[in-house]
Write a structure and sequence with these properties.
Radius of gyration: 15 Å
Order of helices and strands: EEEHEEEEE
Number of strands: 8
Low-confidence stretches: none
CATH topology: Thiol Ester Dehydrase, Chain A
Largest sheet: 6 strands, antiparallel
CATH superfamily: Hotdog Thioesterase
CATH architecture: Roll
Distance between the termini: 13 Å
């Protein structure tokens, strides 16, 4: 019987599938993996494929979907923190966005992107604000500041 791994730092989570930290599942699971995490910043990666939700054939994914992608990165950040504390992914809500800027009209099919969220603040009631950025080959293609509410802790994970 395999032993469950107890993670003690956010850095140990790098390379794990994003679904370990999110309540989202296909077809709405948009992120592939957690690339890096620390106390205030999380980086995830995703690839747009032709069977991805929101794909317009031969055109890609409209840039406004980037807000949801950024929101999922924030959710991975919260889920990674929860996992370190021995809990599953928390329930959260994307309350809004400010200053959304897309430098592209669409995210391209068969392209590999990274999304980063940096926590600006989070209060004890679960309200938080994050600066987010989506990059392609190291160049920013979309940016926003998200307001979120982390409402409930996930279930305690068994050892």
């Amino acid at each position: 019987m395999p032993t469950k791994i107890q993670y003690t730092s956010l850095e140990q989570l790098a390379g794990l599938p994003a679904e370990m930290f999110l309540l989202h599942r296909d077809p709405m699971l948009l992120l592939d993996a957690l690339v890096a995490a620390n106390d205030d910043t999380t980086v995830c990666e995703f690839q747009i494929t032709s069977d991805w939700p929101f794909v317009t054939p031969d055109e890609g994914v409209p840039a406004y979907v980037g807000v949801e992608i950024m929101g999922q990165c924030v959710a991975v950040h919260a889920g990674a923190r929860a996992r370190i504390e021995g809990f599953g992914p928390p329930l959260g809500f994307l309350l809004g966005t400010r200053h959304f800027v897309a430098k592209v009209d669409r995210f391209e099919i068969d392209s590999d992107y990274r999304v980063t969220c940096k926590e600006l603040f989070r209060d004890t009631a679960g309200m938080g604000s994050y600066d987010c950025c989506i990059t392609l080959d190291g160049t920013s293609v979309a940016e926003a500041r998200l307001a979120v509410l982390e409402k409930e802790r996930g279930e305690r994970l068994s050892a």
